[in-house]
Design goal:
47% of the residues lie in helices and 17% in strands. It contains 31 helices and 29 strands. It is elongated. Residues 1-21, 326-335, 369-388, 415-421, 629-636, 711-720 and 849-854 have low confidence and may be disordered.
């Protein structure tokens, strides 16, 4: 696949460079796609056609063009008389089948729970019934698991079994019912919305001009009724009114007709069905009166009706467009082109294999501890399981060093005319695991990988909300979505861009925006119920008026069809949910499930984990307690300090290379000390570290590990002392023990106990006070068995606090609350709390960049600020109020206007104004959430 213009044409294409052959070639406008004529993004895609590199708007057009060339059908471009997206392709090819190619499919389709998932842009969506029509039509296909269409964003998410149904068939079905769908990409999606907006504006302008002219002639006709206007003068004005109204009806009104026809073909009804019936009846009744000279004409009503409908929809569309684009600032638009330096597939595969093995060992360790009903890891060190453990870090560092040494040697040996690095610009989507890329200063990091350069300075503010720059060392793990804030560096790609952390965030947001809460589903169902009843009622109104006054039958029916159309009802929920979701995202509170907002408004209890949630999850060294025999005399302060420094240096040396928070705390405390060298370092999952220093074997970890005790409390080999860890007296949250093995290599001797505390988040107290003021009860559920956990809970005013809980215990507590009628929000760290997060009614996790892939909660706090919970509660409450206000308004309007319209007191043009204003009120009311 070509990603950049090629300076050399293939031999097979030289014949087309003859200007006489391509003299009649139809070329697109500047900066427009050579294949379909749509505007191209910057930088554009390219394909080699007729001996030249041509600009393409998307990967689909690029691959379609390449398929035409490879099939020897380039004559297609010479024979076509125009460029447009609906022009037929050669009979041998269809554009939609292009999306079945594995190469192009991999750019927008990803796997999830054994199914395929695709994010699509959908054009021509006009109301909630359009989304329902697409969803219901696709649900009829075998292999479709779930389809969700977002009216506000003009996007959809479909989950299906690829073994039963190709993606091209899904796209074809959408096209068959009158809508256009293509793979979602932010820049091309925005271009589609802008193009659709421009088309709406053009139609609105024509409707405005036509309605003004038609109204001028209508005024003359109205006054002519009272001034004895001659018949030929009346007929002349009617024909002129027909002339100015025709483009309004057949061009400006075409969106209503096509939408209604698509619904009828699918044996469904949408909002445009009654609108289209009203327009068609009015226009052709007026046409009949013009031709026969009998009856009244209402060309002015037709034109004004279309104008007011388009004006309302244009304002509504722009409001929805503005709400939908608010979230785009939260996700980086990935670079289209990246600089590939080389590749090392074997190294990347080896690292990924070790990561999987390491993750499996961690899962087994957690499972074993859960089965015991205790949490050793919580007692000793919070969040013990880290994805990048010391062994893997040593491996990645060695790979990075070997790469740099090899490159330097080859650079020194290479000739001036030959570069060992074949640097090339490639598309981001074409990157593969094992590629080595150069990340320029100031640019976004496209995928996850391992740093190969000596150092790098990156910002992860998009992922974590923390603006501080992070210094990375050679071999460190770098996450996609971070930004390079220093000099260029090289990295080994270990994940495809779509599987990187920023790719995951984008998918989570798409999922949240696609899923419909129960309230939205009820609104859609009620709107469809309304449309069906309106059609029945309009027939009854027509029959009734035909009996009483046949001349008013048509116009009363038209007024009922228009005035009672439930457009406002269908907009009541989706626009409010979109604005509030994006408003929450501005606080760093990312909803990943559609029901999150609705459930947040109903919560009665909030359950908190402790470590990493109420606390920062970053322990600090509080005290070093030396362990001596009772017969040993007290040493002076100077020698005591020297002993502590010596043991601290030993403990820190054992933790060198570890990514554990406790290791970080020890290394930070010992940053001014000289650390001894270590040999034979071994890491024990859920235990600690063992290494040799100057011929002596040391251990650091929890007490049982350091003293080599078995599960029943006895020693494997024996020890001549035992120790007591008093966390309450030390006001600590965790502790580790440093020990050494005696020279006879049979006994372990404890040397010191290191106490740590985990600082409570600065905003935790104010957040709890705010929730208490809202009448919400809270509880703390933690796996930390230390009494200090309960002391901390009491200091925060948490009355119900439980410590030493296994994951199963936490789930039981949540289920007990739910059995008593509580609606529970669970706040955890997103990794070890997965079972309880799933058990709660709604959940959120304070997730960092390294653990986003394991988040199983309904929402994520990206910036680490726990006070976002109170903002989420406030916004969800306001969203619920505004949705109810919109419902009440829509139902009240439709109920109130029905009787006057049926009795003939509401002319069609006034009904159009009322319906448009009703929809506009709902939209503007929902936009108040932007200030929540």
């Amino acid at each position: 696949m070509s990603s950049i213009p090629s300076s050399v044409s293939s031999a097979t294409n030289h014949s087309y460079e003859d200007t006489s052959i391509i003299e009649g070639l139809v070329l697109p406008l500047a900066d427009h796609c050579f294949h379909c004529g749509d505007p191209v993004p910057q930088p554009p895609f390219y394909a080699e056609i007729l001996g030249q590199s041509r600009e393409m708007c998307c990967m689909g057009c690029q691959l379609a063009a390449q398929s035409i060339v490879e099939a020897g059908l380039e004559q297609y471009y010479l024979d076509r008389s125009e460029i447009n997206r609906t022009a037929s392709l050669p009979t041998q090819l269809t554009r939609l089948e292009v999306y079945d190619h594995d190469e192009i499919k991999s750019q927008f389709v990803y796997a999830q729970d054994g199914m395929s998932v695709a994010e699509l842009s959908v054009n021509n969506l006009r109301c909630a019934a359009c989304t329902w029509l697409i969803e219901s039509r696709l649900d009829e296909l075998e292999g479709i698991g779930k389809c969700q269409v977002n009216l506000t964003n003009q996007r959809m998410r479909v989950i299906w079994d690829e073994n039963k149904l190709p993606i091209s068939r899904i796209l074809a079905v959408i096209n068959e019912i009158g809508y256009e769908a293509k793979p979602y990409r932010q820049d091309t999606h925005e271009a589609m919305l802008v193009r659709h907006n421009n088309q709406m504006l053009l139609r609105l302008g024509i409707a405005a001009l036509g309605s003004m002219q038609a109204m001028m002639y209508a005024v003359a006709l109205y006054f002519g009724e009272y001034s004895d206007m001659l018949i030929f003068q009346r007929d002349f004005l009617r024909w002129v009114s027909l002339f100015v109204s025709t483009p309004v009806f057949f061009y400006a009104g075409i969106p209503f007709f096509t939408s209604a026809w698509s619904a009828i073909r699918a044996r469904q009804v949408n909002m445009d069905v009654p609108v289209s019936l009203a327009l068609i009846i009015t226009f052709f009744a007026s046409l009949y009166a013009t031709i026969t000279g009998q009856g009244e004409t209402y060309y002015d009503s037709v034109s004004m009706f279309i104008f007011f409908l388009l004006a309302g929809r244009y304002i509504e569309h722009n409001a929805r467009l503005k709400a939908a684009t608010m979230a785009n600032d939260l996700v980086v638009v990935e670079p289209v082109l990246v600089q590939k330096v080389a590749e090392d597939k074997s190294a990347a595969e080896y690292i990924l294999q070790l990561l999987k093995e390491n993750e499996y060992q961690q899962d087994k360790a957690i499972e074993n501890e859960a089965q015991k009903g205790s949490s050793v890891a919580a007692e000793v060190m919070p969040d013990f399981m880290q994805r990048m453990d010391a062994n893997i870090y040593q491996l990645t560092s060695r790979i990075a060093q070997d790469w740099q040494q090899s490159r330097n040697q080859q650079n020194a040996q290479s000739q001036p005319e030959g570069d060992i690095e074949s640097k090339q610009m490639v598309t981001a989507h074409s990157l593969q695991v094992g590629d080595i890329i150069l990340v320029e200063a100031g640019s976004e990091i496209i995928s996850d990988g391992i740093l190969l350069s000596s150092t790098a300075t990156v910002s992860q503010s998009l992922l974590t909300g923390e603006g501080d720059l992070i210094i990375k060392s050679q071999g460190d793990y770098i996450v996609g979505g971070a930004q390079n804030d220093s000099q260029p560096f090289e990295m080994l790609v270990t994940a495809l861009p779509k599987d990187s952390q920023i790719g995951l965030i984008d998918r989570l947001m798409n999922r949240a925006m696609s899923e419909k809460p129960k309230l939205a589903q009820q609104a859609d169902k009620l709107a469809r119920w309304f449309v069906a009843r309106i059609l029945v009622l309009s027939v009854l109104v027509f029959v009734g008026w035909y009996i009483v006054d046949p001349s008013q039958a048509i116009w009363a029916t038209v007024a009922v069809l228009v005035a009672t159309c439930p457009c406002a009802l269908s907009l009541a929920t989706p626009i409010a949910l979109t604005v509030s979701t994006n408003r929450l995202a501005s606080y760093g509170f990312l909803t990943t499930r559609g029901h999150t907002l609705q459930t947040l408004a109903e919560i009665t209890h909030v359950a908190f984990d402790k470590t990493g949630t109420l606390t920062y999850g970053k322990p600090n060294l509080l005290n070093i307690e030396l362990i001596t025999s009772k017969s040993q005399t007290e040493t002076d302060d100077l020698s005591l300090t020297a002993q502590k420094d010596t043991l601290l240096a030993i403990a820190a040396a054992l933790e060198v290379g570890s990514r554990h928070p406790i290791a970080h705390a020890l290394l930070t405390a010992a940053h001014q000390l000289h650390l001894p060298s270590t040999q034979a370092v071994q890491h024990y999952p859920a235990g600690g570290v063992e290494a040799m220093i100057n011929g002596t074997v040391y251990r650091i970890g929890h007490k049982d590990f350091a003293l080599d005790k078995t599960d029943d409390g006895t020693n494997n080999i024996g020890t001549n002392n035992d120790i007591t860890i008093d966390l309450v007296a030390q006001r600590a949250s965790s502790a580790v023990v440093l020990s050494y093995q005696n020279t006879d290599r049979k006994k372990w001797q404890a040397l010191a106990c290191f106490y740590f505390n985990d600082k409570v988040r600065d905003s935790a107290q104010s957040m709890l006070d705010t929730l208490k003021g809202l009448g919400i009860e809270f509880v703390m559920l933690t796996g930390d068995p230390s009494p200090q956990a309960l002391v901390m809970a009491e200091s925060l005013g948490i009355q119900a606090a439980y410590n030493g809980l296994s994951p199963t215990d936490k789930v039981n507590h949540i289920q007990q609350l739910q059995a008593n009628g509580a609606v529970v929000l669970m706040v955890g760290d997103g990794i070890n709390d997965a079972p309880v997060l799933a058990a709660a009614d709604v959940s959120t996790s304070i997730a960092g960049a390294a653990d986003l892939a394991q988040v199983s909660s309904d929402s994520i706090i990206l910036n680490g600020q726990i006070e976002a919970i109170t903002a989420a509660k406030r916004i969800s409450d306001k969203t619920e109020r505004i949705i109810k206000q919109n419902f009440r308004w829509a139902l009240a309007y439709n109920s109130i206007v029905l009787i006057p319209a049926a009795l003939g007191y509401v002319p069609p043009w006034l009904a159009a104004i009322g319906m448009s204003l009703s929809s506009l009120f709902v939209v503007l009311n929902a936009l108040r959430l932007k200030r929540a």
